[in-house]
Amino acid sequence: MVNVNKVVIELLYKNGCPACIDIIEMVKSILAELGDYSDSIDFVTLDLFKDNERVVELGMYKCPSLAINGTVHYVGTKPTKEELKNLIVCELSKLLDIKAENR
């Protein structure tokens, strides 16, 4: 699911998981803070049971788990908002550099 034209954030969640809900709200807040850059970011929630193929592909077996551009960064833990924002901004910077090089 790696998309070279966007930063793809994938969250493995389970209904009723409080940490999962916190991360969803964190990502929404970060996207709002990034303004126009948020158009270059896709946020995908993966259901532990419905999206089993992708979950296995990523190797994310604990909730919550978070991957950015196909790289798993957190398994069974919740990042701070600052940590998560730094990861997203770092990946966004790489993406914008690639887009600039291809012009």
TrEMBL record:
Gene3D superfamilies for this protein: Glutaredoxin (3.40.30.10)
Domain Thioredoxin-like fold: 9-88
Membrane-crossing segments per the record: none
Alphabetized InterPro entries for the sequence: Thioredoxin-like_fold, Thioredoxin-like_sf
Domain of life: Bacteria
Name the UniProt record assigns to this protein: Thioredoxin domain-containing protein
Species annotation: Persephonella hydrogeniphila
